[in-house]
Amino acid sequence: MTTKIVARWVVLDIEGTLTATSQVHVVLYDYARPRLGPWIDAHPDEPAIAAAKELGGLPADASTADVVAVLHRWMDEDRKAAPLKTLQGLIWQRGYADGDLTTEFFPDVAPALRAWHESGLRLAVFSSGSVAGQVASFSRTTDGDVTALFERHFDTVNAGPKREAPSYRSIATALGAEPGDIVFFSDVPAELDAAAEDGWQTGGLARAGEPFEHAGFGAHPRLRSFADVEVVAK
After folding, report:
1. Cβ distance 31 to 226 under 8 Å?
2. What's the pLDDT tens digit per position in 202-231?
3. Which residues lie closer than 8 Å to 22 by C-beta, 6 or more apart?
4. How far apart are CA 165 and CA 23, in angstroms?
5. Do both 212 and 107 map to the same domain?
6. How far is CA 189 from the centre of its chain?
7. What ranges in 78-213 are assigned the alpha helix state H?
8. Which of 28, 98, 100, 208 is most buried, most CB within 10 Å of its CB?
9. E strands within the chain?
10. Shared-domain flag, residues 87 and 125
11. In this model, does residue 25 exceed pLDDT 90?
12. How many Å apart are CA 52 and CA 185, to the nearest integer?
């Protein structure tokens, strides 16, 4: 049965929702990992480097090797550390621009995005990946450049943690929208809980082969793909 949702804004998670988790944890992480050291050496004044040292408990004069060791540990832990996300995003931005990287969406994603946009719905992203990384990843996909479909981008730096309700309040305010006029799609139940706490509508993606395929979504509509939902512009 198709779930029907009436909204003004569609806000989307990326990993596990628009792309396979392996797109980030394998493709993008493996691309960034060996490039962190050379990138830090080439951009010593990047504020995220100093932020990484501080958050990692390193002295200001810590070596590149020491900083990279901390960043690699955070990657292994899948820690949503802002300095790491910023540095990864800058490296991925160059990778997409150089043609080294291409984002692969799930087959149902691009048709849904374009249909929503054409119907008058407004699209935004809320991902733990940096805004720079988000924009770069949408600039080169297997379905072309889709950056023009999205009006706003949010990450844990400009919005806050994804599992806390105040972050969704901040986004609603930035969008100039009532919470009930926004629908958020994610594969992570805790993120959907936080959005619903602020009054957002929600949809949980339980995609085959993904980490949250068999998760309990509670009151959130459970969707195998965007083919299971009809979003109508209010």
Report:
1. no
2. 999 999 999 999 999 999 999 999 999 999
3. none
4. 27
5. yes
6. 15
7. 82-97, 109-118, 131-139, 165-175, 189-197
8. 28
9. 3-7, 9-12, 122-126, 150-154, 182-186, 201-205, 222-223, 229-233
10. no
11. no
12. 30
Domain of 50 in residue numbering reads as 25-97
The last residue of one of the domains, among 44, 73, 97, is 97
> Are 160 and 187 part of one and the same domain?
yes
Counted domains in the chain: 2
Q: Compute φ and ψ for 47, nearest 5 degrees.
A: -55, -30
Residue 124 C-alpha from the chain's centroid: 10
- Cβ atoms within 10 A of the Cβ of 216, count? 10
Round to whole Å and give the CA distance between 15 and 19.
Answer: 5
Q: What is the pLDDT of residues 200-210, one digit of tens each?
A: 999 999 999 99
d(CA 68, CA 49): 10
Q: What does DSSP assign to residue 128?
A: S
Give the global pTM: 0.90
The pLDDT of residue 1 is above 80: no
